[in-house]
Design a protein that fits this description.
six-stranded parallel sheet; Rossmann fold; 14 helices; binds 6-O-phosphono-beta-D-glucopyranose
């Protein structure tokens, strides 16, 4: 498939630069700043989407000055040119684009707990400011409170003040509620931009386009025509040295109420009245509120043991650094969700995510009910499946039953595929470009609202409570996950699509 009828294949072209603003980054020396924020700013600069009046002020404990910080970031950017597997990889750093960012970098050595830091910010800042909290979650509440106390979140006409908060937003329902109360005491909801990086992916945003800009889907996108929906975020990586973070977190907290629920919203929400932040986020919040809290009997947790992933021997979770030898933290979760509304009542939504699985695959698979007319009942048919492929493949894959050439009426299933790379020029991006740009422009559509976050935690809270005790099922690294996850779907005669990397193995294909 190629793109035709395209106003522009480059979403950036014809788009106005963001307003002048100072971006204040708490956590200037951290991984997120180096790996994602700087490449995103570089890409925005390259696309002409940053205002000449942009300033970037980094804060951290490290003993650096403006030149030192700029130098260390320049070295990191250069390193991306010879790291083909990094999240951001370009053959060469464009001097004009990076120069635009580099000459705007300023650094302040700061203690986030000290009032002096915020007094100094008060002296340095005026006009529009975005405070980006690229820091550990324990700093979110205190930093926002101190920004408020120092008067730095007060907006006056012509000068906005916004706060970007990274994940994780709380660790359960009570802590998310407490964090919301804390930050909402210092800032208005309209000033808060809670990030879920999945929403920065074009393939995720495109689900709205596919569903609502193509007439053929909406009439069948409901319980009358859809048998089940699978949402998968399978990873081949393990905890990658993040044992300290992962031990108290686990796969459920790390992936489900945030990333997987955002995918759920995109595939299941009602059409919003408009594409503005309030309309879209209200539909998402309504959808999540309709999710029945998950009973422990509708969920499976797993933990990887030693095995082999993509041909490489890997250790078990319990042998990872900073992980307890008897850890019961889950590295895999599968669950069945019920959405209690008119569109979806009775349609199971199956969610699964895990580390050290056989393949990396983030996608939504919508399985349709069999055709009501049994014209072909004596011939093998397979259910129609539409896959919305988010990572690492970007596109869609829809199965079609067709007639095999020849004198007899024999059926085969084929795949109608769309791939972004075939239709649009590919540009290396890290997924934070749109999120940063939208925040600078004041468009909160792709950010999470307090009510939706709390409803998502409420939906999984029964599992968090139940899983404080007991053991996960064990699965061998490099497998498709624990056997109990298959049994979960077998209850309703459903089965997970295989994670096989070729991605075309589901039954009946003639390919
Ligand atoms: C992060 C999780 O939020 O998302 C990680 O903390 C996970 O554990 C990652 O690996 C997955 O994101 P992506 O974009 O690589 O699929």
């Amino acid at each position: 498939m190629t793109a035709s009828c395209k106003p522009t294949a480059d979403s950036a072209s014809g788009t106005a630069p963001a307003p002048a603003c100072t971006l204040v980054i708490f956590g200037a020396g951290g991984d997120l700043t180096k790996r994602l924020l700087m490449p995103a700013l570089y890409n925005l600069a390259g696309a002409g989407l940053l205002n000449e009046g942009t300033g970037i002020l980094g804060l951290d404990r490290l003993d650096l000055d403006d030149a030192g910080w700029a130098q260390s970031l320049t070295e990191t950017m250069e390193s991306f040119t010879h790291a083909a597997t990094a999240e951001f990889h370009v053959p060469k750093i464009d001097e004009t684009a990076w120069g635009f960012v580099r000459e705007r970098l300023h650094y302040l050595k700061a203690d986030f707990g000290s009032p002096d830091t915020f007094a100094e910010l008060g002296r340095r800042l005026s006009g529009n400011v975005v405070f980006y909290l690229a820091v550990a979650a324990r700093f979110f509440g205190p930093v926002v409170t101190k920004l408020g106390e120092a008067g730095l979140l007060k907006e006056v006409p012509g000068a906005f003040r916004r706060v970007v908060i990274e994940k994780p937003f709380g660790a359960d329902l009570p802590s998310a509620q407490a964090l919301n109360s804390e930050i909402l005491a210092a800032a208005d909801e309209s000033q808060l931009y809670r990030i879920d990086h999945f929403l920065g992916k074009d393939t995720v945003q495109s689900i709205e386009a596919i569903r609502f800009a193509n007439r053929q889907f909406e009439p069948v996108w409901n319980r009358d025509h859809i048998a089940c929906v699978e949402i998968t975020a399978a990873e081949t990586v393990g905890v990658e040295g993040r044992g300290g973070f992962y031990e108290p977190t686990g796969a459920l907290r790390d992936m489900v109420p945030n990333h997987l629920f955002q995918l759920l919203c995109m595939v299941a929400m009602e059409p919003p009245a408009a594409l503005d932040a309030e309309a879209v986020r209200s539909e998402k919040a309504r959808l999540i509120q309709a999710v029945r809290p998950v009973a422990p009997g509708d969920a499976v947790r797993g933990q990887y043991t030693a095995g082999s992933v993509l041909g490489e021997a890997v250790r078990g979770y319990r042998e990872e650094p900073n992980v307890a030898a008897d850890s019961c933290t889950e590295t895999y979760v599968a669950l069945e969700l019920a959405i209690e509304n008119g569109r979806w009542s009775g349609v199971p939504f199956y969610l699964r995510t895990g580390k050290h699985l056989s393949a990396r695959r983030t996608e939504i698979a919508v399985t349709f009910k069999p055709s009501p007319l049994s014209l072909f009942k004596d011939r093998a048919t397979c259910p129609s499946i539409m896959r919305l492929m988010i990572d690492p493949e970007h596109g869609t894959d829809t199965t079609l039953a067709v007639k095999v050439p020849g004198p007899e009426m024999r059926l085969a299933q084929v795949h109608a595929q769309f791939r972004y790379r075939d239709a649009f020029p590919q540009k290396p991006n890290v997924g934070y470009e749109t999120l940063l740009y939208d925040c600078l422009r004041g468009d909160a559509t792709l950010f999470q609202r307090a009510d939706a976050i709390e409803s998502a935690w409420a939906a999984v809270q029964p599992l968090l409570d139940a899983w404080q005790a007991g053991e996960p099922e064990f699965y061998v690294s490099g497998s498709e996950g624990p056997a109990a996850a298959d049994a979960l779907l077998a209850r309703k005669n459903h089965a997970w699509l295989p994670l096989d990397p070729s991605g075309t193995k589901e039954g009946g294909s003639d390919e």
